[in-house]
Each structure stands twice: as structure tokens, then as C-alpha cells.
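Lab channel / #folding
Pinned by the channel admin:
"Please post every new chain as: sequence first, then the C-alpha cells as a reply. Keep commentary short and put observations after the output so the thread stays searchable."

First post following the new format, from NK:
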Amino acid sequence: MTKSTTSGILDRFLDPLSASLTAAMARRLVNFRADSETQARVEELADKCSEGELSPAERREYEAYVRAIHLVSILQSKARMVLARKRKLR
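Reply from TO:
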């Protein structure tokens, strides 16, 4: 499955969800950041990946983080669109 196919599938699932976001919920999503421990772990794994030094278990962990980050990014993008639409309606 290609990246664009995955994004299209996620869009189909997440569009109805984003349509139900309140402005407050959308702002919380936009402002979401992983905690410092998680950020440090992702950076550590990214550095090891760049150096070609990931173990198989670390690669699976890193790929799981990348998928989670991708999902959160899509949700944040949809939340920004919700907030922009609500600003236009004012």
C-alpha cells in the first residue's frame, strides 16, 4: 500500500470525526505535543536510524512512532481546518 493510499484511507475515517470537533477540542489537538521523554526516545531512534544502527526491535518501535506521528499530524491538520472554518463564520 502506498503512502498516498494510506493517507486517503485515513482521510475517509477521520473526516467524519473532524467534522464533530468543537473549537476547544480542535485547539487542544493543534497544541498537542508528545512528552519530553517520548520526544527524546524518538530522536534517539531517528539518530540511530540515520546511522544504520537500529536493531530489529528498535526499527519496529521507531516505525510505530512514525505511524503515530503521522496520524497525529493528520488530526492536527484537520483540526486547523476546523478552526479556520469557524473563524470564517464569525
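NK: The mean pLDDT is 91.
TO: also worth noting, The CA atoms of residues 46 and 52 lie 10 Å apart.
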